[in-house]
Amino acid sequence: MKLFSLIIKLLLLAVFIVLAAFNTHIVNFSYLPGSEISLPLILLLLAFFVIGAVFGVFSMFGRLLSLRHENNRLRNEVRKNARIAQEQLQTPAPADAAQPVPDTAPVKE
């Protein structure tokens, strides 16, 4: 499975390298009205990919923090339950409950 994954990754890398090699044309990018910049197409594609990845990471940051908080809370709960269970196993039974009750009934012969 690891080999298959590696082959797929290498094929995707090769496709992106070929894409980069064929998209070296200069394009005009208008970022504000009246303002434009001339850059190679692959550079603009890479820049917008990175910007999208950064926005994606920032959008997941809140969820990451809430999941981390929940994970810590559940870990603490498991530790607490394990400690309580361990204490219950170590507590001895009361001394008077361990001795049998003597039979006081008269014995018939």
Automatic annotation (TrEMBL):
Pfam families: LapA_dom. The chain crosses the membrane at residues 39-65. Residues 23-80 form the Lipopolysaccharide assembly protein A domain. Residues 90-109 have a biased composition (Low complexity). The keyword Transit peptide does not apply. Residues 88-109 are annotated as: Disordered. One of its GO terms (cellular component) is plasma membrane. Keywords: Cell membrane, Membrane, Transmembrane, Transmembrane helix. This is Lipopolysaccharide assembly protein A domain-containing protein.
